[in-house]
Amino acid sequence: MNALQIPRPQPTTTPPAPDTPRLTLTSDPPPVPPTSPRGAREVCAPRAPTPPTPRPQTTTSGTTGPVLDYAQAADLRRKRSRALSNQLVRLAQWLEPEDRAIAYAAFRDNLTAREVALIRATSARLVRRHLRVLIKRLTTPLFEFVARERENWPALRRHIATAVVLHGKSHREAAQHLHTTLHIVRTEMNIVQALAGE
């Protein structure tokens, strides 16, 4: 009698696992491409500075025009330009008669201080001092402002501004000349300066 043969289980074979890349440890990490952080400013070449655009000079009356230079006008040793002399002559029409005559002789007729002194029988030093006082008064922006705008003001304000600004009187002298108080003169002059933007 043949012995009962029990079949032996066949050994199972597992399919080979796919090759997986091996991790290689190195001392230096792989290079990372440089990236600029978000919001970082880009470095650009410096730009050449832009020269400022010259602005036209504006007088207190609101009209654009050249502003008189006191230092240039008051230098009696040098010959003034024709444009500067014409401006001084134009402004001198609002001076008092005696001051206007000296200004016309110096700025319109181009007489020297010595020649004006001979005509007026005085010294050249006093004529130069007088001319510098007149030039300082004529070259202030308030002078031309009052000369142009005074006809639009009340009579008292017009007379006070004319005496103080155009004729060069002090506040006290203007009060005595116009038979008013010193307080009124100061109040009206504060209004005039406020209108002129000073």
Task: Write out key terms for the chains shown.
about 200 residues; mainly alpha; Arc Repressor Mutant, subunit A; 9 helices; flat
Can you walk me through this structure?
With 198 residues, the protein is mainly α. Among the domains are: 70-138, no CATH class; 141-196, Orthogonal Bundle (Arc Repressor Mutant, subunit A). The protein has helices spanning 70-74, 82-92, 97-108, 113-120, 124-138, 141-149, 155-166, 171-178, 182-196. The model is unreliable at 51-66 (pLDDT under 50).
Outline of this structure?
The chain is mainly α and 198 residues long. Helix content is 48%, strand content 0%.
> What is the straight-line distance between the termini?
141 Å
Shape: flat
- Roughly how many Å is the radius of gyration? 46 Å
Helix % is 40-55%
Q: Mean pLDDT across all residues, rounded?
A: 76
Low-confidence parts: 51-66
Given helix and strand content, the structural type is mainly alpha
Give the helix tally.
9
Order of helices and strands: HHHHHHHHH
Q: Largest sheet, described in full?
A: none
Count of distinct strands: 0
Our estimate of the beta-strand percent is: under 5%
